[in-house]
Every structure is written in structure tokens, then in C-alpha cells.
């Protein structure tokens, strides 16, 4: 059992972490208000990928409701653990075989990464049993780089019209870009997201939002017309290569059993389901998010010694 000192230390860590997240959220909200002067409504999506449920709950208790996740499995697990009035945004690369799992999340608010006719059709089909229409954003490649995801700007209107006419379970909500648009790129003749939105409104009478801007550039994005910003590290802290995680007594037993019996897949599951903090343990995030690296580390003498220091 944990000593009184250990319990006090854990409680102090919880308070510190909660205050940190609240302080960061307040800072971001104040930045948004300062730039927009409250002349337009801006949605703040707190990007919580790789973050424990406890962090999301702290932000939730401070009034945050929109959260963004990059991985379907992680989003599905967290949605089962946290309040149902959280409004989840999927902002990662959409894979064909994950559409059904995404559609089954009852409080999935939007998918922001539709970038092809095929993905729109698959998502529409997956949503057939949903009571509501699923909000979607069309991801636009504003960088001009072929390696980046997203549809080319000059192809947007065609896909927008196709979705509006053929996907009755999807609600077109807006356009999404990774980061703020590159002004130089648009000066070369490519239509920017704001222009595309205006053209679509002219054709169909539908107002589209602009989802752009992250921690590094959300202030610039707001000045360029963003109405939906996706901010992670400014709220929850940067994702380091090596980080100190905290685990519950239940997880300690799971870790010990995993080492003893060689069941390594338990690690990601137990960490992602931890709603509370416990004994600290140092691991690189890749160790439990990358199956092979996790297995290699835990199979090594150093890995076992590191974990057994805490699990006995």
C-alpha cells in the first residue's frame, strides 16, 4: 500500500496538473478573444492525442467540450470512459477500414479529414444507422506539397457539390487545412479556403466554416478567417520523446503480469484507460504506441528492471 507521503505527493501532482491545464486553456481563450474582439464565434478544439483521460477530464471540468483525436482506436476507447456530452473531432488520416468504428461513436461531432470521393462515400455508408447526420470538413492541401494530405484547392468545389448531392448522412460543415494557409502559394493563382467557401455559398447557399490553425499558428489563422482552431501542445504540453507517465495500482499489477507472462499488448490499453494518476514510471511514448519497439524494450533486461522497480 502507498504510504501517507506517497498519497499526498500523488494528490499534489493531480492539483498541479489540473491548474496547469486550466491556466493554459484560459490563455488560449483570452488570445482568441483578443484577436477576434468577440466579433465572431470561434470553436476551440483541444487536441488530446496521446493524453490520458485525466487530462481531458480536467479540461472538461473547466468548460471545454470539443476535443480532437488523431487515432480511431484511441478515440473510441476514450469516448467510452469520458462524459457523453464531450463533442469529439476526428482530425487524423481517415482509413477505409476505420469508418465503421468511427461512425459507432455516439458523440462523434465531426470528421475533419475527408479528402476524396471514396472516403466521403465510405463514411456516408458507415453512418447509415446514426440518428443524426455526421458533420464533416473537407481537408484542403494548402501547402502545394504532394506529400501532404488533402484535396487540391481547384478540385474542392466539385467534391463539395458531390457530397452535398449524394451523401445524405453527411453534413458539410467546412474546410480544413493543416496550419494557416501559405499566402505565397495562393498568390500564385490557387484559390484559398476562404475564396472556396465564398464560391460554394454563392452556388449552394451554404455557409462553410474554416478549420485552420494549431498551437504554432492559430493566431495568424484567426486573422485569416479561421472559425475552428485545433490546439494541443499549448493546452496539454508538448509531446516529448521521453516522458514521465503515471499509472494506477491496477496498472502496476497489469504491468507485472505482462512482464511475467510476456503479454505486452496490455500496455497501451491500460495506459489509455487510466482516469487517475498513480506511481510514476518513465517510458518513451513510442514504447507503448509502437508495438515492436514496446516489445523490444520490455523484452530487454533494462526494460524489465525499469518496470520491476515499480511493480515488484
From TrEMBL:
Print the keywords alphabetically.
Electron transport, Membrane, Mitochondrion, Mitochondrion inner membrane, Pyridoxal phosphate, Respiratory chain, Transmembrane, Transmembrane helix, Transport
Q: Name one GO biological process term.
A: mitochondrial electron transport, ubiquinol to cytochrome c
Q: Where in the cell is it found?
A: Mitochondrion inner membrane
Kindly list the GO molecular function terms attached to this UniProt entry: pyridoxal phosphate binding
* Keyword flag Membrane: yes
How is this protein positioned relative to the membrane? Single-pass membrane protein
Keyword Methyltransferase assigned: no
Which cellular component terms (GO) are annotated to the entry?
Answer: mitochondrial inner membrane; respiratory chain complex III
Q: What is its main location?
A: mitochondrion
Q: Which residues carry this modification: N6-(pyridoxal phosphate)lysine?
A: 49
* SUPFAM superfamilies documented for this protein: PLP-binding barrel, Ubiquinone-binding protein QP-C of cytochrome bc1 complex (Ubiquinol-cytochrome c reductase)
Bilayer-crossing residues are none
Question: What InterPro entries has UniProt attached to this entry?
Answer: Cyt_bc1_su8 (IPR004205), Cyt_bc1_su8_sf (IPR036642), PLP-binding_barrel (IPR029066), PyrdxlP_homeostasis (IPR011078)
Function comment: Component of the ubiquinol-cytochrome c oxidoreductase, a multisubunit transmembrane complex that is part of the mitochondrial electron transport chain which drives oxidative phosphorylation. The complex plays an important role in the uptake of multiple carbon sources present in different host niches.
Task: Name the family the entry cites.
Answer: Belongs to the UQCRQ/QCR8 family.
How does the annotation summarize its subunit structure?
Component of the ubiquinol-cytochrome c oxidoreductase (cytochrome b-c1 complex, complex III, CIII), a multisubunit enzyme composed of 3 respiratory subunits cytochrome b, cytochrome c1 and Rieske protein, 2 core protein subunits, and additional low-molecular weight protein subunits. The complex exists as an obligatory dimer and forms supercomplexes (SCs) in the inner mitochondrial membrane with cytochrome c oxidase (complex IV, CIV).
Q: What is this protein called?
A: Pyridoxal phosphate homeostasis protein
In which organism is this protein found?
Funneliformis mosseae
